[in-house]
Amino acid sequence: MPLKKKEIPSPHSLSRRDFIRNAGVAAAAFTILPRFVLGGKGYVPPSDTLYIAGIGVGGKGESDLTGFAKNPKAKIAFLCDVDDRMAVKSKANFPQAKYYRDFRAMLDKEAKNIDAVSVSTPDHTHAVAAMAAIQRGKHVYVQKPLTYSIFEARALAEAAKKYKVVTQMGNQYASADHVRTAKEMIDAGLIGEVTKVQTWTNRPVWPQGIPTPTGKFKVPAELDWDLWLGPSKFIDYNPAYLPFNWRGWWNFGTGALGDMACHIMAAAFRILPIDFPTEVECSTTTAWSGFFEEAHYNESCPASSIIYMKFPRKDGKGNIQFSWTDGGLLPKRPEELLPDEQLGDYGSGYIFEGTKGKLAGCYNIPPTLLPTSLMKTVTLPKQTIPRIAGGEEGHYTQWVDACLQGYGKMQLSSPFEYAGPFTEAVLMGNLALRSYAMQGPNGTTPGRKTLLWDAKNMKITNFDEANQFVKREYREGWML
C-alpha cells in the first residue's frame, strides 16, 4: 500500500517503514523536510511515490515500465527477469533499479520496499507471479491475457478482492476513447438491441500448427531455463520457444486468442450485459504431414480457428451469439459495406449486429455505423462516459494514481473484477480448441461438439475430458 503523506521516507539502507519506526519523529521531520522543499520543480517526495517492481522486463515488459514511468509519482525500483538478454533496455532505462532473476526471492527480500508489481512474463507465469504479489498486499498490473487458465483468472479476481489491492490488466486499449464512443452509441439505441457480435484477427504472426521442436541445445549463460519454465512441466531448452514464439505452444502460451482477444473482444464485454458463456464450439485448420495423412500437433496452437459462444444477457433479454476467427479468416462481409470500404483495420475488427442496424470498428479505429453514410445523417449521442487522459497510454498512469489513492478509491479501465470474468470467457475458446484436437478410440474426435459450460462450478457438463483444460498441473515449487 502507498505510504501516508505524514510518513517519512528512509535512506536506501533501510525500508521506509523501518526507518519511521526507528527514527525520532520530531527530529526526523525537522531534518528531512527541507529535502522535500528543496527538491525542485516537479519533485515528488518519496512518501507520495509508488515504488514498482517489474517482473518480466523485456519486450512488452520494457514498454510497460516506460509507461508507468511517465507518471512522475512512479519509481521503477526493482527489475526481475530470468533472461539477462531481455533485461538490457530496462536496465539502461532504470539504472538505479535493483535487479533479480527469481521473482520469489525478490518479493521475499524486498517486500517492505515494494508498493506495486507489474507482471509482463510469458502467459504461463502470469498467475503465479501475480498471486505471490497480491498475497503480500501489493497492487498488481498484469499483461493480457490475465492468466493462462480459467481457474487462474477466477483465483486472481477473488484474491484481489480479498487482499484489497488495486489491479489492472494490460489490455491498454480498454482505456482508449473508441470503446467508450461505441458504448455511448449502442446505449443510445442507434442499432437497437444487440443480438450478435463478430470479432476477428490476422494473428498468429508467429508459427502455429507445427511439429514440436526437437534437438539438444545448450542453454545460454544469460538464461535460467528452469526459472523460465516456472509452473510448466520440464522440457529441454529449445531456441524455437524464445524470445517470442512461446505464444504458439500450449505449454506456455494461449495462442492468437490470448494475444489479441483481450483487445478486440473488450468492446463487447464493456458494452453488453454479459459475463460467462453457456456454450462454446469451434473448428480449426487441419494440418497434413503427407498425402492424406492428417497430422495431430497437439502441443502447438492451431494455425487458424473459428469459435462460437453463446452468452445469456444478464438483463434477461435473451442471448448474444458471439464469434471469433483468427489466422486471417474473416466473417462474411456486411452487405451494407461498399466494395472499396475497409472492414475493421484489415487485420482485426468487430461487428455488432442489432435489431435496427450494425456497428463496426476495432480497438484502434473509431466505431462506425453501417452503411457508413449514416455517420453523416445520424445525430450521435453526447459523451456521457468519462475519458481516460492520454487514452491507451493513460492506462498505465491511471493505475499508478489509483494505487496511490488506495483500494476502491478510483475506477480503473480493466480491474480484475472485470478482467477476471472477461479472461475466463476468452480462455473458454482455448478450452474448446484443445478439446477439438483430442483423439479418441479408433480415430474418433469426441471433443468436436458443442460444449456446455457451468460457469459457477467452472465445469463442462457434457464432455468431462475437456475439464482438464480448466486448470493446469503445476510443477513442484510453483503452486498457485
UniProtKB/TrEMBL annotation:
Pfam family name, one: GFO_IDH_MocA
Gfo/Idh/MocA-like oxidoreductase bacterial type C-terminal domain mapped to chain residues: 179-275
Stretches assigned to coiled coil: none
Highest taxon of the lineage: Bacteria
Molecular function terms from GO: nucleotide binding
Record-annotated Gfo/Idh/MocA-like oxidoreductase N-terminal domain positions: 53-170
Name by which UniProt lists this protein: Gfo/Idh/MocA family oxidoreductase
Record organism: Chryseolinea soli
